[in-house]
Amino acid sequence: MPTTSQGDPTSAPEPHTSTSERHHHEHVDPILHRPPSAAGQPGLPPISERLYNQDLAPTRVEGRRWSAYSIFTLWANDVHSLGNYGFALGLFALGLGGWQILLALGIGAALLFVLLTISGYMGFKTGVPFPVMCRIAFGVRGAQLPALIRGGVAVVWFGIQTYLASLVLRVLLIAVVPGLDRLDHNSILGLSTLGWLTFGALWLVQTYIVQHGMDTIRKYEAWAGPVILITMAALAVWILTKAGGSIAWSTNHRLTGASMWHEIFAGGALWVSIYATFVLNFCDFTRASRSKRSIALGNFWGIPINVLFFGVIVVVMAGAQFRINGHVIESPADIVKEIPDTALLVIASLALLVLTVAVNLMANFVAPIYALTNLVPRKLNFKRAGLISAVIGLVILPWNLYSTPAVIVYFLGGLGALLGPLFGIIIADYWLLRRTRIDVPALYTEDQSGAYAYRSGVNPRAIAAFVPASAISLLIAFVPALRSLSPFAWFVGAGLGAVIFLAVADRTRVYDDVSGEPIAVPSVH
């Protein structure tokens, strides 16, 4: 039964619960099932505990803490991830020169700035996380589909990225204590003893941070951002000095003409596709932003400017190493291994670990937490869902998944191809159909007359747009004959999702704009 929004949640204990149990529940790990300050508010719909708790509720405008610097440091960490360096250095290996790599990244960054800003504004206005945002277009029940797709991609990558970070830690520990190498040659479920120790240590660190909530993640990102920027700049200066102050601007197999331009635009498109997950759930972070200006300013310095800085580092690293020995490096970790001083090597390796943890927290941990919380809001909150997400990331034995190319290509690649249509539908519905008019309290009611009840809680028109757009996106991603189009699969999927949705949308509905403040909770809780 839906729970009404009247009364304070602490004034009405749950049935069959002892006083001591209620005290433990309320003060140790509480789950708020009703709005804390909605009593006496006329016109509010009945709020359902199957759709509402303190982590899914909208955040109050007053007290939001994410500044432009907070947004900037998200990108200061994520843009400089080892995976992104691997991608950009791969462009050099393909035959693109310095200016072409910068152009490709610039095109992608310009597009990302626009996409992330319009996505971020949605979070600022409504104050809701991504699974609740999905209820607008897909319905209060249909929202489970996009939330679980996004969360499924993230939780697998959380395990894989933690494993990859553990490899760096293993190399670091063996370099400092060579005797540990004897623990790295056995196999327990596919991982050595040292592998289990390093994976477990990083797993515990990340789980501990997440257990303390989004504001702790904000603080970690704010601290890690400058560390990463300084470290990467220092690595670029070191390798440039080692190369005698000059770099090779391209390999000996430079692309020219049409093939060059195809790779430039494909590189820009793939740069956007890398962030296909983030453009979906950026509202998870901007729901705590102080203003729209802080989002735009943080994105400006964090995307176009920071990506240009990233591109310069890539060109210097790749060109300097190629000048030295004719080889194209695959990751900054390759440069770290060449540092002759053990102390400096340790510092650089630790910085890479700080980076990987920062990227994993925001890109691969937050999304499954909200997805799981949305699945069972009566039982799960941010803390509990964070622990479950971490356990899933462990029990899937991600090192075995990573060593199986079919899993990466078909499972994760397939889920990734679905993100474009989801984005197209959600953006078209919010910006073009509703013109940002959202009835936020109605996102938390099971009343069949509610604005987002649709048909038994599912919007069939959104599903009707998602299915064909997804099918075409998957074909482009996996059919060999369409390989030249595969870098643009996300754009095709997003465009088709938006166009089909607008074509089938119900234009007879009247859209109300109702603030979520009456049922909102503090931004830090």
From TrEMBL:
<feature type="transmembrane region" description="Helical">
    <location>
        <begin position="488"/>
        <end position="505"/>
    </location>
</feature>
<dbReference type="Pfam" id="PF02133">
    <property type="entry name" value="Transp_cyt_pur"/>
</dbReference>
<feature type="compositionally biased region" description="Basic and acidic residues">
    <location>
        <begin position="19"/>
        <end position="32"/>
    </location>
</feature>
<dbReference type="InterPro" id="IPR045225">
    <property type="entry name" value="Uracil/uridine/allantoin_perm"/>
</dbReference>
<feature type="transmembrane region" description="Helical">
    <location>
        <begin position="385"/>
        <end position="402"/>
    </location>
</feature>
<keyword id="KW-0812">Transmembrane</keyword>
<feature type="transmembrane region" description="Helical">
    <location>
        <begin position="222"/>
        <end position="240"/>
    </location>
</feature>
<feature type="transmembrane region" description="Helical">
    <location>
        <begin position="188"/>
        <end position="210"/>
    </location>
</feature>
<feature type="transmembrane region" description="Helical">
    <location>
        <begin position="462"/>
        <end position="482"/>
    </location>
</feature>
<protein>
    <submittedName>
        <fullName>NCS1 family nucleobase:cation symporter-1</fullName>
    </submittedName>
</protein>
<keyword id="KW-0472">Membrane</keyword>
<feature type="region of interest" description="Disordered">
    <location>
        <begin position="1"/>
        <end position="39"/>
    </location>
</feature>
<dbReference type="InterPro" id="IPR001248">
    <property type="entry name" value="Pur-cyt_permease"/>
</dbReference>
<keyword id="KW-1133">Transmembrane helix</keyword>
<feature type="transmembrane region" description="Helical">
    <location>
        <begin position="295"/>
        <end position="322"/>
    </location>
</feature>
<feature type="transmembrane region" description="Helical">
    <location>
        <begin position="154"/>
        <end position="176"/>
    </location>
</feature>
<comment type="similarity">
    <text>Belongs to the purine-cytosine permease (2.A.39) family.</text>
</comment>
<feature type="transmembrane region" description="Helical">
    <location>
        <begin position="408"/>
        <end position="433"/>
    </location>
</feature>
<feature type="transmembrane region" description="Helical">
    <location>
        <begin position="342"/>
        <end position="373"/>
    </location>
</feature>
<feature type="transmembrane region" description="Helical">
    <location>
        <begin position="87"/>
        <end position="116"/>
    </location>
</feature>
<feature type="transmembrane region" description="Helical">
    <location>
        <begin position="260"/>
        <end position="283"/>
    </location>
</feature>
